[in-house]
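Running co-folding for nicotinamide-adenine-dinucleotide.
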Amino acid sequence: MNQPQHHTIPVSVSGSDRTYSIEIGAGTIGRLRDVIDFERYSSVALLTDENIPERFVGLIDGAVDNEYLEMLIKPGEITKDMETVEYVWQTLLENGFDRKSLLINLGGGVIGDLGGFAAATYMRGIDFVQIPTTLLSMVDASIGGKTGVNFGGVKNSIGAFAQPIAVIVDTDTLDSLPDREFTSGFSEIIKHGIIADRTYFDQATAKPPREFMDNELSRLIADSCRIKAAIVASDERELTGRREALNFGHTIGHAIEALKLETKNPMLHGEAIAVGMVAEARIALAMGELGKDDATRIENALSAAGLPITVTGLDPKDIMEKMRSDKKNTFGKIRWTLPTGIGQVVTGAESEDVTISEAIESVLA
Ligand SMILES: NC(=O)c1ccc[n+]([C@@H]2O[C@H](COP(=O)([O-])OP(=O)(O)OC[C@H]3O[C@@H](n4cnc5c(N)ncnc54)[C@H](O)[C@@H]3O)[C@@H](O)[C@H]2O)c1
Ligand SMILES: [Zn+2]
């Protein structure tokens, strides 16, 4: 009964007949060879960061037939820049990597975004595999084909849409992930429930994040990947607005994240998004889009998961200003993604400035 469960989620790549799969479960890295035909590649490289425990790299050794080149970079958002991309390009070139090469990205969203971008551009694009090792990258960053780096002081300003040949989610890697990072990733899981599926929201908030058993966690991750993949498939390149559903909590959340980054106690992405979701749910409440019970349920669920629902040390004016400069706003207007219940959202909503500032002020402690 307690056999580890594996989930395979097929993802279709729009504009082509190509599909790839997301493999989820405990020990999936060990089964890499079942998913990837290494024979097809002239050379293989692994990109990872210094925080990823050696034993996971060891698992790759066992699972890859070919000899491979290892590139180890410094951990953290600071590394997600053009200089590191150049290092990857340069290393591949110096080692004779051609167009038939494969890049394996083992790490969190930083490794996935940067490695995905380096692969998408090297020799006009080589194949890459995402092996996300943070909860956030498992349920969010490694799905949807957005790759890129920070440039000119603007987050993710240079990048490309590129799909991996496979995403391998090995839940064993979460054992070494710091609790704060784990909880932060749960924020996106809860978001997926709020924007798309009430039953999923109830399951994901039934107990504190670290209390889910392996099989329950694999199932939660799989369902989150399904939700995100379905939304992405409906609007891969952000053209129709459907993908905007994923932005819930992110308009205010991103501004908070960016401003906190300049302080002595920055917030993790998921933490800032949790506060953003509370504020944006309150905008929805004030506009009559969302009922009081559901707004309260959202706040209680985030708080019970160990996520912050308020933030200290910020000025509401700075948050407003930061939001207006966000690249997601078309023609200077903020397009809100607001919940109209748990499990559904409206996108492209407009709101009065006073409603927005009241909501923001309500989450400032
Ligand atoms: N492409 C997208 O659609 C998308 C979506 C969301 C976020 N992102 C990007 O993802 C990045 C954030 O991702 P993240 O939260 O995974 O950050 P991250 O990659 O910086 O990882 C967080 C920290 O955990 C460490 N770590 C990773 N896996 C570990 C493990 N198994 N055990 C111990 N330590 C481990 C990392 O070294 C790092 O210090 C941001 O750059 C963000 O822009 C991209
Ligand atoms: Zn996010």
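Result summary
The mean pLDDT is 94.
The pocket of zinc ion (ligand 2) is lined by residues 140, 188, 250, 269, 273 (CB under 6 Å).
Job closed.
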